[in-house]
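Lecture 7 notes: from sequence to structure.
We start with the chain below.
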Amino acid sequence: MNRLRYRKIVNGVMLFLTGICTLVTVSVLFLILGYLVYNGGKSIDWNFLTKLPMPPGESGGGMANAIVGSATMVGLAALFGLPMGFLGGIYLAEFGGKSFAFAVRYMADLLNGVPSIVIGIFAWGLVVRPMHGYSALAGGFALSLMLVPISLRTTEQFLLTVPRALREGALALGAPKWKVISTVVVPAAMKGILTGMILGVARAAGECAPLLFTALNNNFWARRLTEPTAALPVMIYRRAIAPYDDWHRQAWAAGLVLIGMVLVTNITARFILSRGISVQKG
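Predicted structure tokens for the same chain:
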């Protein structure tokens, strides 16, 4: 009887502690969102979304070029990095041996932990210097380096969750291995793979340090991918350290737009993951 009472007390205490930790975590998130909405919501209007930045000391203007620039560079990063990580993950899950696969996984995890500013310096030396100028291509390349290890490890992990019986059944019917992978294994894990890729893209969209070394900034429209290009994280940084109150308000507004984009992608990823990652009827 005493043991049962002790177990109930411990269960209640642990339930209370986990509830408090959950409440604190959620409260921090809502505090950040509320602070951004309060400070940034007052500066978001149609001009902010469609106009170019104004010169220093003048109020008004917007960040349309930075919104388009962020979308462009994140799109380039996805175009460069996601296919490479996807194919690499397939190789590790389906063809990789022991020693080589271990080395690739280790290097991918190591690359995933490299500070983004180091990736920016590397992209500057590899792309910006040979091209003799900052550009959206260099920024997209830097961001793609961050997407490769994320998409590689995500693809491998979700492919490994596919039941082995599916592979064996398809092979027993006489299908070649490449067809088994492309028509059975990958479709079964595609929802989970897409979820990881979307989360990786959302992370890359908020990076500022690599873009300072690669895309730099531009207060006007970038007409070519080989020109310096504005991005929301860089504009937030530059506006936040400026001595103008109007620029500070725009920094808050840009932060709200950026976190809104990240939240949308995260919610989309969670929705995809909630639908399951295995082959189901219908």
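Points to note: The radius of gyration is 23 Å. The chain has eleven helices and no strands.
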